[in-house]
Each structure stands twice: as C-alpha cells, then as structure tokens.
Amino acid sequence: MSILPQVIFLLVFAVAGYILFKRISFLRRNIFLGKRETRNDLPDQRWKTMLLVAFGQQKMFKKFTPAILHLMIYVAFVIINLEVLEFVIDGIFGTHRVFAPFLGSAYGVAMNIFEFLAIAVLVSCVAFLIRRNVMKVERFTKPELNGWPAMDANLILVIEIILMFAILTMNATDQILASRGVPHYTLLNGLFFSSFLQSIFQGMSDSTLVFIERFAWWFHIVGILAFAVYVTYSKHLHIFLAFPNTWYSNLKPKGEMKNMPEVTNEVNMMLGIATDTSAEPPAEIGRFGAKDINDLSWVNVMNAYSCTECGRCTAECPANITGKKLSPRKIMMDVRDRAEEVGKSMDSGGPGLADGKSLLGDYISKEEINACTSCNACVEACPINIDPLSIILQMRRYVSMEESAAPAQWNSMFQNMETAFSPWKFPPSDRFNWAEKVKNEEIKEN
Amino acid sequence: MAEMASTGETPEILFWVGCAGSFDERYKAVTQAFVKILNKVGVSFAVLGPEEACTGDPARRAGNEFLFQMQAVSNIQVMNAYEVKKVVTACPHCFNTIKNEYPALGGNYEVIHHSQFLQQLINEGKIVLQGGGEFKGKKITFHDSCYLGRANDVYEAPRDVIRALDVELVEMKRCKTKGLCCGAGGAQMFKEPEPGRKDINVERAEEALATGATTIAVGCPFCLTMMSDGVKNKEKENEVKVYDLAEMLAKDMGI
C-alpha cells in the first residue's frame, strides 16, 4: 500500500501545527501588550469558577433555549475530538478505525453516540442560523455586528454543518463497504443515524464508495485542522480562552474599583501624611487611566480575545436599551481589533502602538464611555465573566486626569467636591441641618 | 460624634448620612425616618455631621481618582481618629465605597447597609411592626439598586424588610441580578444623559408601574430621585409613591 496518503497527512498536520503555533504566539504577545497584573490569589476559588462557569456553562443557562443548543455543540465538540484522535492515528499510520479492535462492541456504541452528537450539532447550528438570520434576535442585529462579525458567525455555523455531514457520509459509505466485505473496512453493529444516508450510496460501485469515504475522511480531518486555524482568527477563540478567562475572573465584589496606588502617594503627600513608600525611589508613573491597549491590564485584552460577541451584555445595558451609543460588546470588540492592528503593525516592522491612533478616540468615543452607569449588568450577563466596565472606567480616568476633558457638569461636580466636600454646592456647615426637625419633634413629644 | 467623643462615649454604630441624606430636600426625610427608628429602638449611634465629606464615589466613577482619594483619605483620617468600628449607611454608593474601597486606603470598618441593619432589628424583635399600616395588603415592588445588588450581592435584606410589613411584594420583570439600573450610577446623577431614545429612569418607571404596585420601594437616594422623576414623567405621581425602606417602617411604627 502506498504511503503517500500518510506523508500528505503528516505534511498537512505539520503545516496546520506551524500556522497555529505562529498565530498563538501572536495572540499571546498581543494579550501581554496589556499591563502586568497578578491574579493568582485564591486558586481554589479560581478552579471552582472555571469549572462552573466555563466547563459547566453555568451562566449560559440564564437563557434556556440558546443554552441547550449551545450545550449540545459544546458537548459534541469535546467528545467528537476523541474521534479526531483516532483520525490522527489512522492518518499517520495508515490504519483504519484503529480503536475498533480494542474496544469491541463498545466501539460501535461510541460511534453511535458520536453520530447522535453530530445530529445534535446539525440541529443546533440550523437553529442558530435561524435565530440570527430569520428570527433576527435583537442582540444579533446591533450595528457593531455589521460586516465581518455577522459573516464570521454564520460561516462557522455553516462549516460545522458541513463537517457533521462529512462524518455521517463517511460512516454511511464505510459501512456499505464493510457489509460488502471490502477488505480494510470493519463492520460495526449498526450505526443508527448514518444508516439513513446509506440509501443514497447503495447503487454505487465499490471504487466510487471508497473514493467518497476517503474524500469525506480527508474533508473532515483537513476541515477540522482548517477550523482550528480559523478559530484563532475569529470570535470563536472563546472555545479555548473561556477557560483561562474564567480562571482569571475578578473575584472581588463587582462594585469595587481598583485602587491607584500611584495616586495614593501623591494624595498622602498633599495631605501631609507620612507614607511608608516615601523612602523608595518614585516608581515610574505612566499614564493615568487608559488611552490605548497597553494602558489596560493584560486581563482586559484577554477578555477581548475571549469575547464571542453574543451580545448578552449589550442586551442588558441600560444605556444601550434606551438608545445610547454605548454597547459593552462593541467595547470588547474594539479592544480586540485595536490589539490586532497594533500586533500586525509590530510584526510587519510598522510603528505598532505609535501609529498615531489609539483605542480611545479612534475606536471608542467619549460619548460611549460617558453613557455608562457602572451598573455591572454587562459583567453579570457575560457567560464567561468578561468585564467591559473595568475598561470603560479606566478610559474615564484617562479622560478626566490626563485630558481634563470630563463633561462640563462633571467638572462642576468635581469643583463642588473640592470646595464643599459634596457633589452639590451646599456649605459643609449645613450637613447637620436635617437633625433640627427630629430634635423639634422630640422636644414637642416630651 | 465629636460630642460623644468629648464625653468619652463610644457609640455602637456610626450612621453615615451621605450627601443626599444631608442636603437633598426629599431624601432628608429618609435620614430623619431612619434616625427616628434608631432612637425608638434605642440604638446608640453617632453621625459625623459637618465632619463628614462625600465618600468620593461619583468623582472616582467619573474618572477623577485624585479627588476621590482626597475625599477618602480625609474621611478615613476622621473615622480612624474616632476609632469607628461599625458603619451603617442608607446609601448603597457610600456603602460600596466605604466597604470595598476604603480598606485599600487604610479604612477598615464593618459596613452595613440600612436594609441589612433594619432586617437585623426586625429579626431580633427590636422593631415591632404594627402590621403594615397604610401599606397593609398593598402591592409593593422593590427596585434593586446596582450598588447594593449586583455590586455587593445584597438582594434579600430589603425584600425581607418589605415582607415584614405584611404587604404583597411583586417583582418587576428585571429584578435581582437582572435588575435594571435607575440611570443614576457611575456619576450619571450629576450630568445630563448622553443622547438616546429615552431616559433610563423612564424605562424603569414604566416597568415598575406595569407591576400594578402602588408603592415603589427603594434603598438608595439616587434611585429615589430617579424613580420619583420617572413616575412623574408618566404622570402617575398621585397614584404611585416612591418610598425608602426606612420611611415605610417609620410610617408603620407611627413615628
């Protein structure tokens, strides 16, 4: 038997592996364009969060129908990958269904489970296509999805449908060949779902069937490798990044804003309080707040690459619901797109971050960040614990402290607070005036 | 607080009144109601009075970290000087800031929202309710404040307080973790909203009115303002009232 297919297989596998390695290195570097931040505390709680939220899909189930459909694709993805392992071994060693002799009748059962999952994926993908393109579920019709993002979503659903058909076609033809006693093919004890496809192929000759079977096999495995590469260029990165993303979740109360210690030192000096850090040389103070991706934390950038643009954040955002420009999903997409732009520029010898553009201004407008009520609805809604609010608030810090360009009414509020220690302009001496009424009533009673 | 300190007294709690509690014409009634409850129950408490300053929450959320920390560090100096251990406040923004953000600046206190404190007093039998009073059997809906709910996971305490009044608690479609903001958080209280189709408080008031409740209960000064304005916008201010939890209890207790 010719070893050509094995050589071709190895070659395809190596090329895919190389492209993936390059792309993953690129993504890793882009994510670490963000500032260092250590989030390794409470490992028990972090593993638990990852297990529940990413592995267990806990937050997906806030919306039941899509959660079930998504679960089927997710389970199928994880389990069908076991079959891919067999594909790879068969591909390298020129074997066919290498696991079958070892597993005996369990192999047939496993194949039936895989076929069931393939059908489940088919149904789910069709349902998802309908939700996006026919029912036009509102969160899939927002302007930030126009163009590539909408295409990306549909493309992946169509690819999955085709891949599942390839599996079923392969099994159908494989079993016809096995039942005809063609050597190399193993008869399994009735594959339920693909048997429905068998009638299409019954009249064909052995050689045609072998061709179709081989074609489907190659199509499936090359398809999966191509899919793996495609995923890294697509919103579908969430299938991998959801895991680290949830592990590095913010475990503090959602209302807490990160302190800026570099400001604390200055404030203490202004108030004449001795600081224990005064002996140390002043740390290099960068920018206050965030103007570009390198001002954000690496966790923010990882969040952006993990986002699958489902739009649950935007659907819950009070600003977006009432027609303001802000969309938390767009914030995440903008961070990712800017990281991609900077990364590509750096790799092609371009100016990278110094290209004269920035996240704030060229991607995200002040009108958007000014519309946020910091209500945490987006953070709560995200199925994989992405935190758009953290990015918005860091950009507000930049606008307020570096540009002094906060909205005029906020500047007046700042002024009141500086002079009267209240956001409203009342004399501080009046703070206790409310007590007069209570005192008078008590005097009357007595 | 200064008076108590001068006589060597140590109050059980510091009641953090907040800026709205001190200056907002409508919301001062909430401060007064809460203080009357504390007096009636006999809780030993103090307020900082003119020594209290804004926690800095709106400055921080509007991006002015310097101003926030100036406020925070001054407040912490005052509270630490009085050796404050336990803080109770009716404002979820003050609650969140003192509880979660002051520790990083050297202010460590046990911080409780008034809904939690009132719930404790009811559970301990210190607040004896008269069976709901004017609220008895009425439909009441509770509007979750973001800084109490999602920000700090306090959802049940305010509801327990309302249930204690022997009323029919009805939930809005978006409640608890899915509660819709009143529109004031993140320093929005202090500026006009950005251009859009609708104001957030009107959207929320519509949802509250749709429950058929005659009272909208809140636990936050900004929510109180926003919901009242929203109800007025829908011209329902005569039929539907917006009250803070403390006001409802005080009314029931006849104080």
Features:
heterodimer, A: 446 residues, mainly alpha, Fumarate Reductase Iron-sulfur Protein, Chain B, domain 2, 3 domains, 20 helices, B: 255 residues, alpha/beta, Rossmann fold, 4-stranded parallel β-sheet, 11 helices, 11% strand, globular
At a glance:
The complex is a heterodimer of chains A (446) and B (255). With 446 residues, chain A is mainly alpha-helical.
Can you describe this structure?
The complex is a heterodimer of chains A (446) and B (255). Chain A is mainly α and 446 residues long. Chain A contains 20 helices and no strands. Chain A has three domains: 4-31 and 63-247; 286-405, Fumarate Reductase Iron-sulfur Protein, Chain B, domain 2 (Orthogonal Bundle); 407-446, no CATH class. In chain A, helix 11 crosses helix 14 (328-347). The N and C termini of chain A lie far apart (108 Å). Chain A has helices spanning 4-31, 43-55, 64-93, 100-103, 105-133, 148-179, 192-201, 206-231, 238-247, 261-270, 298-306, 312-316, 318-321, 328-347, 359-363, 366-370, 377-381, 388-402, 408-420, 435-445. By secondary structure, chain B is α/β, with parallel strands linked by helices. Chain B has two domains: 2-118, Rossmann fold (3-Layer(aba) Sandwich); 129-252, 3-Layer(aba) Sandwich (Rossmann fold). In chain B, 42% of the residues lie in helices and 11% in strands. Chain B is built from eleven helices and eight strands. Chain B has helices at residues 2-6, 18-23, 28-41, 57-61, 65-81, 92-101, 114-123, 156-163, 200-210, 221-233, 245-252; strands at residues 13-16, 45-46, 86-89, 110-113, 139-142, 168-170, 215-218, 241-244. In chain B, the strands form two sheets. A four-stranded parallel β-sheet of chain B has the order 2-1-3-4. In chain B, strand 3 (86-89), helix 6 and strand 4 form a beta-alpha-beta unit. Chain B is globular. The two termini of chain B are 24 Å apart. Classes of the chains: A mainly alpha (446), B alpha/beta (255). Chains A and B meet through helix 10, helix 13, helix 17, helix 18 and helix 19 of A and helix 2, helix 3, helix 4, helix 5 and helix 6 of B.
